[in-house]
């Protein structure tokens, strides 16, 4: 019997070997001499992490319990590999062109870089995969315990052993997975180690199988006879379970974080998928070949109650085959470790990128931009994440007690991770899929999976028996294993049916009713049409033709001469002749920097990328270009606004200048008018006073007449000066209104009597005194002045033989309206606008006025809050004076 | 030798004053108060001298002067212009239009008489 110590030593040695292999592979990859590392064979073998300890040990147990149903676990991935390799190719292409680091990153990237989605997928993955990791711990511990039972010298502590296994695997994963940070998230060392483990587990299982068939059962014929005799050889097919589990296995094969890691992230060349399409199903076939024989022989050989999950180990041991048992143990150990390492790596990438880093960055504010700083933080986050994930697995194992059958835990995990499928497939093939749709689908599926499968699966402590029996809140249609009253289904089938169908339905419906944001549309186009947007797997080949294109482009941006000088200098620097340098990376970098000075870094990068080919323009590039253009646009619109403002200012200045010129002209005209109006009476006064002084023998009547003229003209002068002063005061707004109350009739009485005093001509005034009983609150003297002016004008200018002036008063809307209409020939239509201007004189007749009266009236009425206008539509001259009655104001 | 003066002025008191002065000095005085038909009136009356106001209703004194100077028979007619708008610009305009003498209101009576006599003498000598 091999002692436990020997076993531990073998394990440590095996791990050390794997570590050396991984180390060597990394070194080789770094030096670039690693073509064989990138072979399709390694890729195919790395895919075998699909076969975990669950498959290695559990498949035999599964077969021993449920017969041929275990085959479904192999059929699912086989169907995907053979029937859906084109879908995988799209997935790989998208993953490479978008440089995704995990399945959470892929989903988030597809749906507009939504970190919420990434967090959802990450949490879902952690919750699904944690039991799965616990499962691996359990399998290793169980296999240890088998050897421990056989070694009487050792006191074996199961709990301690699980802890040390978990810790060991964590260290292993940290050492392998986070030794350095590769931009592409590729780990050649890990992949190579995984490939070697794949070979070890295949050889181990095949060896046990061959031993069982030829060493125990006595050949193929005897084995077949034993199988025929056994119950589990019957094709006892439960169609619902078969279809469901096959589907789940297929979905898990695509969606499991560790599968995504090796299949998409670690993929070096999408052509490897072609090899894997036949080689991986072959691997699965070989892995499943001896499952039934081992199970049948195990059931025959081993005592009643022996754990069929461990037949792979116990059968050789029972036959005294220590070496074979040791090999088998190593096979199981390989299955468990490879799964745990890759799963922990994949999960830690998701956890650190989507949960830890965003929190750290936001807590650091904007200060965290030093790359070296971030780098160490990322590494630390990954390492801590791995440790936490392993700890979660350990505690799950401790809590669940490790009693549940391995296969059941595996299937629960499959069903959980399959909830990602609708969002993943929809994202790859349906442009209309939206972020909210994906979020809705994921949430619905996750909750249903939790409620119908995971929680009931854990046991009575988490999910009370009352809920199991009677449904949540006593609602029978919410029974976890009989939703909506559909009873009698296998719990697994029931859960998968409801969770996935409602998940897909929510995803589709919400997507259809939602509206994708611009970045989602961009990403959708990039994902769905990935084969049009990205170059094939060919490498980049520089050519002079590209240099020409670069030259043409640069001339447009830098200017013809500058571009030529730059290209020529670069060509000389490269030591070549001619004007076109080779498009070496160094040259491209310098050109990019040169162009960035003119068009911005992102645009420069995108333009060179377009010409040199190689990589397509990513959405980030496009968005950065858009940002730059937006900045340029903003800048130019600012310039435009400035120039608009300038021209507006210039316009205003021009207008102000014109106004000033006009005002100055008006002032000149006014002064000229004033001068004329002053000089005219002064001329008469001077002329007649000289006549009176110088003329001898003037007749007394002549003397009287000339003295009268002088007197009248002096009065005219005074009047004129009074008017000018009045107008000036009114125009400057310096007038003090002397508000008072009175009846309109009284105001009009006073005006009429003043205006008609000393009149040489008779004029009839027509009034309706009853209408004039309107109380007025205003400056009554000023109001009277306006009416006097109008009545006097009518008296002077009305040319009718029997002049009449009718004064009509009415009140409308709080306004008093006074119309004064004479029966003369009125004012010509084209002069009506002018009558209110200063010195405006309409008639040819001199009437002794300077033409300021109506101008003064208008100023007064405006001061009183009213107006005076010429009233069209009358035969004679008609003026309308209106002003607020104001008695309400006075009443207050 | 005729001494006929045509006075074109719209302000009645000024017209009366100048008329009184000139008649006393032995001139025949015709008066006209409107600018509109002033050229025709002058042309048909054929005075020896014209006293012309600038601000006239209908047509300004400047226009009347320009029209008078445009006619062959009235080119040499002496025109004494009186203005109440004391602006130097008006003097320039009047001299360009061919005014014989330009005076600003208010004037002294003797100045007007002297001007009329001088202008008439110049016109008859040539």
From TrEMBL, chain A:
Residues 636-673 form a coiled coil. Keywords: Coiled coil, Kinase, Membrane, Phosphoprotein, Transferase, Transmembrane, Transmembrane helix, Two-component regulatory system. This is histidine kinase. SMART domains: HATPase_c, HisKA. The keyword Protein biosynthesis does not apply. It is found in: Membrane. It is an enzyme of class 2 (transferase). The chain crosses the membrane at residues 6-29, 41-64, 70-88, 116-135, 159-178, 190-214, 242-260, 280-303, 323-356, 377-397, 403-430, 437-458. The gene is resE. It holds the Pfam family HisKA. GO terms for molecular function: phosphorelay sensor kinase activity; transmembrane transporter activity. Its EC number is 2.7.13.3. It comes from Falsiruegeria mediterranea M17. One of its GO terms (cellular component) is membrane. InterPro entries: HATPase_C_sf (IPR036890), HATPase_dom (IPR003594), His_kinase_dom (IPR005467), HisK_dim/P_dom (IPR003661), HisK_dim/P_sf (IPR036097), Na/Glc_symporter_sf (IPR038377), Na/solute_symporter (IPR001734), Sensor_HK_Regulatory (IPR050736). It is a multi-pass membrane protein. Residues 673-887 form the Histidine kinase domain. Belongs to the sodium:solute symporter (SSF) (TC 2.A.21) family. The keyword Ribonucleoprotein does not apply. It catalyses: ATP + protein L-histidine = ADP + protein N-phospho-L-histidine.
Automatic annotation (TrEMBL), chain B:
Residues 4-120 form the Response regulatory domain. The modification 4-aspartylphosphate is found at residue 53. InterPro entries: Bact_response_regulator (IPR050595), CheY-like_superfamily (IPR011006), Sig_transdc_resp-reg_receiver (IPR001789). It comes from the Bacteria. GO terms for molecular function: DNA binding. GO terms for biological process: phosphorelay signal transduction system. Keywords: DNA-binding, Phosphoprotein, Transcription, Transcription regulation, Two-component regulatory system. Gene3D superfamilies: 3.40.50.2300. PROSITE patterns: RESPONSE_REGULATORY. PANTHER family: RESPONSE REGULATORY DOMAIN-CONTAINING PROTEIN, STRESS RESPONSE REGULATOR PROTEIN 1. This is Transcriptional regulatory protein WalR.
